[in-house]
Write a structure and sequence with these properties.
Its EC number is 2.7.4.2. It is an enzyme of class 2 (transferase). Pfam families: GHMP_kinases_C, GHMP_kinases_N. By secondary structure, the protein is α+β, with helices and mostly antiparallel strands. The chain folds into two domains: 211 residues, Ribosomal Protein S5, domain 2 (2-Layer Sandwich), CATH 3.30.230.10; 136 residues, Alpha-Beta Plaits. α2 packs across α4, α3 packs antiparallel against α4 and α7 runs antiparallel to α8. It starts with a strand and ends in a 16-residue tail after the last strand.
Length: 370
């Protein structure tokens, strides 16, 4: 039996930083570069886990009382092995179980083939989504985007992730989504009281995953700065005199402004109002730059600032995508001639244009609202 599952990379369009707070909206686009997981039946006494991103390492595993048991110790594949354990536990609880061993292979288009540096397209989220997708297929369970998202969210929660989980939502559903996370504390509490299958079957109140699309008059350009974003480098050396109470008050105001801007952007997409959408992107960049200054983090490196400035000079709207500090910036244009001018200037500035498009939507998208 040969099984293949793919998960697209992602780019945040708007709502970064705010989205880590439950109930705060963000707009995320899945893009047409993919991470692929292949499963094949093992005819040996062990199964294997292999990734082309770690070509010198192959994990071997067997089953002990039906559960996955990795033979090697201290390996870098914890994200994948936890995703496998979560999906297989769910399959057992569903009484849909295939105990045969398999070989799992990961290949990725989400990094640069020359330098092996990641583009910042959410490879960690994509590998969890594709792994769970493949394991569900192996155990003959119908693959639905919401099911994959919930199992991936449980995986990340068990590993102590404090992120928004927006990357897994984007990879699971494809297309462009308006996303709001739930409080992962609720997931932790539910897992202490219920089985994984029971938690999955519950209504996740507050979770929003709503499909949207760009008007045909808009095109998204993506530039890669060739700088690897490093969260530890986001903290700047600039000192501030604000008290913690003042910072907390500012953050609440930031969240309100984020909601206002995201509502503006969402309405613009729904009404196909190109001008209002472009203004919303510009407003979101300004908000994020102010947030970065107040919270003492580095959002735009010189390369990202240059990327945005080039877009603005060509009457486009541009901003960073994601946490900033490196990786990618995005630019929205309305005329074909803008693309050639912007990408040419990006290349002269050492910024690599990535030939990316919005990935197709995966099946029916649903949302759970409070």
């Amino acid at each position: 039996m040969n099984i293949q599952a793919t998960a697209p990379g992602k780019l945040f369009i708007a709502g970064e930083y705010a989205v880590v707070t439950p109930g705060q909206p963000a707009l995320i686009a899945a893009v047409n570069r993919y991470l692929t997981v292949d499963l094949t039946l093992s005819l040996e006494e062990v199964g294997t886990i292999y990734s082309t991103q770690q070509p010198d390492l192959t994990l071997h595993w067997k089953r002990k009382q039906g559960l996955l048991q990795i033979i090697e110790e201290n390996h870098p594949f914890t994200l994948m092995t936890t995703a496998i354990e979560v999906a297989e536990t769910y399959a057992k609880q569903r009484n849909s179980w295939n105990e045969e061993l398999y070989h799992l292979k990961v290949t990725s288009q989400l990094d640069d083939v020359h330098s092996n540096i990641k583009f910042g397209l959410g490879s960690s989220g994509a590998v969890v989504v594709a792994t769970i997708d493949a394991i569900l297929q192996w155990h003959h369970i119908p693959v639905e985007p919401l099911l994959v998202y919930k199992l991936a969210a449980i995986t990340n929660t068990l590993l102590g992730s404090n992120g928004s989980l927006g990357d897994i939502a984007s990879s699971a559903f494809g297309g462009i989504i308006l996303y709001q996370r739930i409080d992962t504390t609720w997931i932790k509490e539910q897992l202490q009281q219920h089985s994984i299958a029971e938690v999955v079957n519950k209504e996740w109140t507050g979770l929003v995953i709503q499909p949207l699309s760009l008007p045909t008059t808009l095109k998204m350009l993506v530039g890669w700065t060739k700088e690897k974003a490093d969260t530890s480098s986001f903290v700047s050396s600039v000192t501030h005199t604000r008290t913690q109470a003042e910072k907390d008050a500012y953050y609440q105001q930031f969240l309100k402004q984020n909601t206002t801007i995201l509502n503006q952007i969402t309405t613009a997409l729904t009404e196909e109002n190109t001008e209002a959408f472009l203004q919303g992107i510009t407003d979101n960049r300004a908000l994020l730059l102010d947030f970065a200054k107040e919270m003492n983090i580095i959002l735009e490196t010189p390369s990202l600032t240059k990327l945005c400035q080039i877009g603005l000079q060509e009457n486009a709207s541009a901003k960073t995508s994601g946490a900033g500090g490196g990786d990618c910036g995005i630019c929205f244009i309305t005329k074909p001639q803008q693309e050639e001018s912007i990408t040419t200037q990006w290349e002269k500035a050492g910024i690599l244009p990535l030939n990316l498009e919005i990935a197709p939507t995966k099946g029916a998208i649903r949302k759970e609202l409070s």
